[in-house]
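Hey,

Quick one before I head out. I ran the complex with coenzyme A overnight. Inputs first:
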Amino acid sequence: MENAGVQRLEEEFSNLEKECDSLKDEHKVYIQKLEELKSLQGKCISKINHQQKRYKILLSNLNRSETENVKVNELKKKITKNQFDCREMNESLPKENSLFLSVILGRVSVSLLTRPDRLNYKEQYEVFKLYLSLIVFLTSIIQCFLSGFRFIDALYHFLLVWYYCTLVIRESILRQNGSRIKGWWVTHHYLSVVLSGTLLIWPDSITYQLFRPHFMTFSVYMGFVQLLQYYYQSGCLYRLRALGEKRDMDITVEGFQQWMWRGLQFLLPFLYLTYMFQLYLSYKLYGLSKHPQCDEWMVGAAGAIFFLLFIGNFTTTSRVVFEKSRKVFASRRQANHKD
Ligand code: COA
């Protein structure tokens, strides 16, 4: 290479070296701030814990005392407000993983410290569910026309096992970050893992072949309902993001409340039909367990799981709807009083 060429490269390197020096300085500041951040996080966590402990004791002392006057009530209100503020502050601080997440992921932190990060993660979760629901929906339609290939059925059941395992992990991360997903929906997905696993290992027997068409029809229908659920959940999320709020706004903002209530009314008949379908499958499996050629424990196990899913889904959804309707009507009454 010519001298001029080497000189040009040397100049380029020297410019880069200067940039690298300033980068090193910036990185030093970054590490310093990171350490400061860590120490601030630790301080805030211990102060919040202290505050929460003290408020709990204060409240229980106040509740135990017989005195009921304006001052006591005022004090209780102030304590409750401060407890709420502490909970809000706690949301932007790292938390220890739940036992389940520690076992699965180890001691790596899964805390999402800012509200946009939490909303983004929730959105990714919903989009993941959408894609997988679409795949499950289309695959189950194909499966309806493809009988006699147990190996392909096994792949389908395996896909479901993987899907529900992933959901359980993602939902645990969401709950860790303050999502109010009811415990039942997580349990529902654990049970679905066990159910799909049971169907996966069910041998290609007479009972399997008798049950298969019912299960595939159910899968097509459930895939469709899951798409409707996506529409509802992503609509709620979009509105919450637009409102710039997430928690504790709950269903008190008029526009959001109306949309949610209408969405729920549209979704509910489809959901209850799913539950009836689950009950029917459990009844069908009970019948199959009495079949003279039934030797497999999977028949009874799958029937019991479908029944548990029916009970849990039916009661949880009914409870959610009851609570929401109470809030909606209470806020409508309040609005009418104001008019
Ligand atoms: N799976 C995962 N998360 C759920 C959920 C479900 N089935 N149902 C509610 N959530 C989440 C919500 O997104 C919300 O999360 P956030 O706190 O991060 O915002 C939280 O749980 C609280 O939701 P909630 O206010 O109780 O209910 P909702 O208005 O979001 O949804 C239903 C109410 C009834 C529409 C919903 O629970 C549902 O679709 N249930 C039926 C599920 C079902 O039966 N599946 C099996 C057959 S397809």
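The pocket of coenzyme A is lined by residues 122, 174, 179-182, 185, 222, 225-226, 229, 232-233, 236, 264, 267, 271, 274, 313, 317, 320 (CB under 6 Å).

Talk tomorrow,
K.
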